[in-house]
Structure formats: C-alpha cells, structure tokens
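Subject: Excinuclease ATPase subunit structure
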Amino acid sequence: MLFKNICAAAVLTLSGMAAGHAADTMHDFNFKEAVDRAVADGTLDGSVKFYLAGTKSGGKVIEKGLVTNKKTNGFAKSAESACDHVLRSALIQFQNTAKAKGANAVTNLVSFYKSNETRSTTTYRCAKGTAIAGVALKGDIVKF
C-alpha cells in the first residue's frame, strides 16, 4: 500500500511539473473556411450564420456579448485539427442558443481567450498546449 501511495505522489508531482511547463501557443486559423467545413459535413446545420466583428452588422440584436469558452483534448493532435474541433463546439453552442432565441445569426464575433479580446475579420484565435486546446468567442445573437 505504501508503494502505491509513493507512486501516486510521484505521478502527481511529475504531471504538475509538466503542466507548469506546458504553455499554450496561440494560433490563428481561417474562420470562414472552418465554418464552411462544419456546414458541409453537417456539424452545423447552416440555419445560423456567423460573422466576425467588422464583417456584417444590422438586424435586431437579441442578446449582446454572449461568451462561449470550449476546451478539447489536444494531446497528439495537430493544432489545426484540435482547434477546428474545439471551434465547432463553440459554434454549436452559439447555433443552439441563437435558434432557441429565434435568431438566425451571430455577429460581432471576437476571440476572447482568457478574457483577452482579439479582433480579426478573417481569423479566429485558438490556444493549443500539450494536452488541451481552447477557443473562447464573444458575440451578439441577431435576427436579420
């Protein structure tokens, strides 16, 4: 029993040290291409449109400044693959919220990782560490 406790303590210590040294690397990927892939393969149903800040405005804002913060297992996955997967999770959440509120678009989308806002008219930002990839987005639910 003592040996098991010592081994468990050693594993926890080593994994804590590894986590402390595994900093997230920020990546920027093409937002439109990722959304188009998700619609094409049926992950998103296409009933809700997504627009980065500065690319579309107008309509009636139903709810402003909604945030989604999604994480996924990124271990042994490329940044592009892990980030594409986690972006889909974030967009599914926005799609479901928009539909539930009678809206058909999410506008003014910005990357919002660790509450740091990053605006782009073409890309989204994703953090990829050794084991985890994360995407946080902030946007407005809109009815056109």
